[in-house]
Amino acid sequence: MFTMETYAKQNLQLLSQTVLERVQPAVVFRDKGAIDQILDDYTSEHAIRSIHVYDPQQKLLAESTKKIAHTSVMQDLMDRWFLHDPVKLIVIHHKKKVGELVLYGSSENILHFLKTIIIGLAISMFFIVIALLWSVNITYRQIMQAIKPLTHIAQLVSDQKAYNLRFPNNHIHEFQNLNTVFNELLEEIQIWHTHLQKENRQLSFQAHHDQLTSLPNRHYFYQELFNIFENPQYRHSSALLFIDNNKFKVINDEYGHLAGDAVLKEMATRLRLSVRYEDFIARLGGDEFAIILHSIHHTDHLRTIAEGVLASCEQPLEFNGQTIHFGFSLGVAFSQFAENPEDLIMQADQAMYKAKSLNPHWFLYKPEI
């Protein structure tokens, strides 16, 4: 488009020079009849919208406009795009300005050229498309006859993830080469798929479990906690235990962080042994643990579990020749007294801090009536 615009402006400039040379004598002698004739000749025979001739005082001497019934919208757009600005030339006689020529070009020739190109391209494209359709149809039929066995195997691999399948031999040499490559690829995919499944299981475990104790982490804990309030089976028969190590900071300061880590791992082991197999134990962070209990229907059952958890820390831990004593504080809350997971956590947390000042160190949250 830039090339066409440049060409149109250069052509209009040359045409303007020609008009200027023709009209100069008539302008000098103020021969309006001759000027009108010259202007009419050029507007009718050339791509010119209008020509205007002014005297040195910018008074209109003559003008001519192309006489056409109407112009197309496309031509109007191209006139404004390519030839929006007129060509202005000074009429000089004996080094003195005797007038001014203002010429507005028309894009009719450009439009005609574009139409010719578009029609030619359209006709060419039509025959090309017809030839391509015929060729594609023939080729398609031949390929489909050879590709049906391949699509069947590929569909099974896609739907059933049956990476152990292999593509059969094909009578077309090119397809046979393709089958060989695909079979090699399937073998590699089968190996990688097995490896990926193993890694996904490992990543899933790492994402949901604490690295030090291998217990479920805080994220996993919240999933289980929300499940209590979404499942009617657990809504009124579950309990939450918050567990805090009473001497963990002292242990870290006195025996070091390695000893602290050993205590946390020992806590995880003892907690597992002190509750039922189906109970959910998680490490929330630091020395804070939580246990979600299901099928708890009376306080005595809960008391037995709480006392068992407290009893699990009676024996000290032997670490690097040192005897380390530690104890728990337990806060307990029933799910039936909580409106939502956050409410249940708040109740268990309050009960745990209340338990620190009691002996034994456990407390059951009781809502105010």
TrEMBL record:
Domain GGDEF, chain residue ranges per copy: 236-368
Q: Which SUPFAM superfamilies match?
A: Nucleotide cyclase (SSF55073)
Tell me the domain of life. Answer: Bacteria
Which chain regions cross the lipid bilayer?
113-134
| Keyword Membrane tagged | yes
Q: Which InterPro entries match?
A: CHASE8, DGC-Regulatory_Protein, GGDEF_dom, Nucleotide_cyclase, Rev_trsase/Diguanyl_cyclase
User: What does the UniProt keyword field contain?
Assistant: Membrane, Transmembrane, Transmembrane helix
Write down a Pfam family by its short name: GGDEF
What name has this protein been given in UniProt? GGDEF domain-containing protein
**Annotated organism of origin:** Acinetobacter dispersus
